[in-house]
Amino acid sequence: MLTVDQKNRCIQWAKDHKDDDFIQTIFTDESSFQLFRNTVCRWTKNPNNALKLVPKNRQKVHAWGAISMKGVLSCHTLRCNLSGPYYVHILKNYLLPADNFIEIVVYRTTMTPKHTSNIFQQFNDKDILQLLEWPSNSPDVNPVENLWSIVKCNIEKTKPSNIDELELFLAEKFKNIDIDT
User: Which CATH architecture has domain 19-34+56-175?
Assistant: First the structure.
C-alpha cells in the first residue's frame, strides 16, 4: 500500500512528465524468478486441513532487464543479490553494449541504494546516462513490470526442472517478447 505522501509524489511526477514522449528513455527493472513457482489456488471448507505442497528451499534466479520504446535491449540473470558494484558491472557489460540499438539519452532510475551507491555515482560521473528520477514505490508506471509478469507466465508453461533451465528460459522468454506486447 502506498502512503499518502507516496501517492502525491506519483501524481506530481505524472503531471511533471505528462508531455514527455519517452522515445529516448531506457526502462530497467529487477525481478526474482523461483523454480517451481506455486500459483495454484485450492479451496477447502476447513482451512486448517489445507495442504500446501511446495518444494522446500526453492531456488531462484534474479533478473535485470532493459527495454525502450523500440523493444527489448538486454536481460541479464544472476544468482546473487544485486549490489551497487554488480549493478555497475551490468550497466557496463549489458546496457552500454546495447547503445548501438538506441542513443542513450535518459535512463530511468529509482532511489534504491544500488542506484545511489558511490560506485554508481563514480561510474556515471561523466554523465554517461542522463538520469530520470522515478517516484519510489511506483512499479505500475514502469513498463518492464508488465513484461516480468508475461515472462513469469511463459516460464511457468515450460516447467523448468532445474535452476539452469530456469535461467535459460528466462533469458529466452525476455529476449523474444514482441515489441507490440
Answer: 2-Layer Sandwich (3.30)
